[in-house]
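Troubleshooting log. The previous structure file for this entry was overwritten by mistake, so regenerating from the original sequence record. Sequence copied from the archived sheet and checked twice against the printout by T.R.
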Amino acid sequence: MPTLYPMVMGRKVMISAEHYLSASAGARIFARGGNAIDAAVAATLVEGVVNPHMHTIGGEAPMLIYSARARRVVAINGNMMAPARATIDHYSSLGHKLVPHSGLLAAGVPAAFDALVTALGEFGTMSLADVLEPALALAQDGFPMHVGLAGESPKDVDPQNAGAGASLRVYAKKFLTEWPSTARIYLPNGEVPAIGTLIRNPSLAKFFSRLLDAEAAEEDRGREAALCAAADRFYRGDIALDIVAHSDANGGLLQASDLAAFKTRIETPVSAEYRGATVYKCGPWSQGPVFLQQLKILEGFDLAAMGHNSPDYIHTVIESAKLAFADREAYYADPEFVDVPVKALVSKEYGDIRRALIDAHRASMEQRPGDPIGMLPLRESSGEARAWGGGTIHVTACDRAGNMIAVTASGGWIPSSPVIDSLGFPLGSRMQTFFLDEKHPNALKPGKRPRTTLSPSLAMRDDQPYLAFGTPGGDQQDQWTLQFFLNMIDFGMGLQQAIEAPKFSSAHFPSTFYPHNTRPGVLRIEERVDEKVRAQLASRGHIIEVRPPWSEGHVLAVELNRDRSLLRGGCDPRGQQVPSMPAATIGW
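Regenerated output below.
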């Protein structure tokens, strides 16, 4: 089957990113002898410059890494942390029933930089100066305005399209009237720049230079000490003081002690087997295990016999998602604060029990969490999901040595809060995903990391690195990437074909994001799926929302064959079709 974008193949290296300048930055690092982790860190830093409507260094960056040297998969907990003053009582005293979706009251400790430095220090080979060079040059000298960042007129924006609602045209009035520090960078003449206009961010360039000065001052003590010095300047030095001053001036809760206490955790990921592959996900502080729960439910069905995107197939996948995401709402949270029964949740036994709840002929309209501790199919449940309208990026890379990385970075996007004048980036608003309900597992507490939708994926086969993949998309991430994975495993599609195949998603369960609404039974489906299939799904009770033909997903992936003689990479044309991000893959 022909594809819009080519599947890129090579023998040595491969990188896929949500912007061609990010991919090219990673390629340059590869050309200079860097490994996959070096390349991905460089590309992610560039993403924060050229796709600021989707992510900046003020956000978060969860990762999964296979280290060829260590011969193991690790998770980098690149999630933000709530400040010490962020209590349910404090928000209640301000009259809030929910954490606001934007502004400094939703800002916690920015995690992305420490996560990137941790990955670079533990699994990369280069200095911060090496990997930061492309981002510094683009911030200093400028990058061409692209259509995804500029966006469409607010009246023409489809809010269901991933990322399209975060563009400059949508937010121009707010930036000009309320957030002048953002307008000075991205609306330099009081209007959205024309496509191709160079956008410079001198404050961001100076911020990068401050980090490099800290690294250079300690380079005589070795690479590790130099990287730590850069992180220390961000979290415990003058940069931290700039962040706190900005937070104080804008009603935020951050204190210097919050940043000083922050540390990225390297963790053992959660994993599950599926048809000869071992799939790894970040822990239950992310929604990642929901991918594995879906796999354990679906492994009891002959999906291939149903036929790709047939009524039976789509119905089965959607109903399994409803069950898995109901458990996400009931159990997932920061495991440092909540005892999450994650091993039971992703077990074969629990998947078998939950599978029996699927009615092959009728769509469920209920939220039905199970009981993984008692191994019961249902537990008593209490209880409109909006589509993702914010921003996220993904970067994935591999090299012939076997190193493989998936980075799903987000937060700190420019619609979240005003740019910090002295630093050139805003703080994120991830705290909006907390609940101000002490009984909820994802209830707000000081020092807690919120349950995030950011969900990179990595798969092994025969104890060898096989696939690294991910997508932006909020609650849809582990639905779109699941379909990509099933396309390859159950239907034998090639990498690029699996990315481009028509996709769908459920809005049935509570949204992670403010205001945490639900839309029971809603099935969003690209119009490329046959009309007769859509009609049959409607007859089973699904509430069908037909989406534009290229709107469900922004999947990026890299693949390594068993003997490491061939690398494949692919990216999603949907980012260009929406438009939101001009994804690209480079390899050789």
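Residues 144 and 317 are 41 Å apart (CA to CA). Archived copy saved in two places this time.
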